[in-house]
Write a structure and sequence with these properties.
The protein is an alpha+beta fold and about 120 residues long. The chain is about 20% helix and about 20% strand. Helix 1 links the parallel strand 1 and strand 2.
């Protein structure tokens, strides 16, 4: 399972840029189930101006982006990554989004099929 974490959040606060990504990645690494998640720190997930952005993603699956996260959400993010990973489509309606994250979905991006659609 893959978890993408924005490494520039909060992007528009020059003194705190990158703090979110470091804090969430550390909280995940410290969590007992954290080793089950492949974390990729990425430059930006396009959630600006809302900060605290991470997304669950996988080959052939919809990418689901969450905003307004902080390090305290590590357990919910790990649970979301596991649920997303076990779902064939990745679409939020097809897996149980943790209640703490349900109202923080800020984007769902379906993948194109082999025919380009």
């Amino acid at each position: 399972m893959t978890l993408l974490i924005c490494r520039t959040c909060p992007r528009y606060d020059s003194r705190a840029t990158g703090d979110f990504g470091r804090a969430l990645a550390e909280a995940i690494a410290d969590h007992p189930a954290g080793s089950l998640v492949a974390v990729r720190n990425v430059q930006c997930l396009g959630g600006c101006p809302d900060h605290g952005v991470a997304a669950v993603d996988g080959p052939g699956k919809a990418r689901v982006r969450f905003s307004g996260l902080d390090a305290g959400d590590a357990a919910a993010v790990i649970a979301a990554a596991a649920a997303h990973d076990s779902c064939a489509s990745g679409a939020p309606g097809d897996w149980e989004v943790p209640a703490e994250l349900a109202d923080r979905i800020s984007s769902v991006t379906p993948k194109r099929g082999p025919d380009g659609f």
